[in-house]
Amino acid sequence: MKNNLIILSISFALVGCVSSPPDNPDNICNIFQEKRGWYKAAIRTEKRWKLPPYVLMSFVFQESSFKGNAKPEREELLGFIPWFRPSSAKGYSQALSSTWNDYKEETSNQFASRSNFSDSADFIGWYANKGFFNGFKKNDARGLYLAYHEGYKGYSDRTYRKKPWLMDVASRVQKRSEMYQKQYWGCAEDLKKKRFFIF
């Protein structure tokens, strides 16, 4: 009985670690004011990997709608029986298991979790940083997103050209990044002032 209570307590604690989506996902200033830990994670990612916060957040919105436990919907067998998920993607970044393992190995972040916002932000920065060495600009959310989805080899082979839906999604990511950028410029200094006083 005692062991069951301990397991139950741990389960509740783990569930509590997954942060709920922000109240206003369309305003990066409101997001960072509400989620101070996310703001600090975004700043760490920018310092380490040179990825601007507004590009990072446009990726997270597109991939998971800011849901730490997001997973692709299951396919249906015979049209109604829940079946396997189409990929191993999950978490804020919707990183595939294989790419996530590469990230953990390269960064020595062995305990990283895709349901942890800070780890997911670092992962996206790590992946985007590879593009910066190949000529991608830091605010090219569209190009970076296409490479994020297709892989850098797939991007160089222009596999995305056969996927009009993906090109539309990438354009939406760019548009959201530009919206977030304008908002961020208006509150960056205020966020910076509060950074070390509000937790």
What is the C-level CATH assignment?
Mainly Alpha
Structural class: mainly alpha
Give the topology string: H per helix, E per strand.
HHHHEEHHHH
Total count of strands:
2
The shape is globular
Model description:
Helices cover 62% and strands 2% of the residues. By secondary structure, the chain is mainly alpha-helical. It has a single domain, classed as Lysozyme (Orthogonal Bundle), CATH 1.10.530. Strands 1-2 form a two-stranded antiparallel ribbon. β1 and β2 (81-82) form a beta hairpin. α3 (36-49) runs parallel beside α6 (117-132).
What is the strand and helix layout of this fold?
Blueprint: H1 2-17, H2 28-34, H3 36-49, H4 53-64, E1 76-77, E2 81-82, H5 97-107, H6 117-132, H7 141-156, H8 164-194
Antiparallel strand pairs: 1-2
Helix pairs in contact: 2-3, 2-8, 3-6, 4-8, 6-7, 7-8
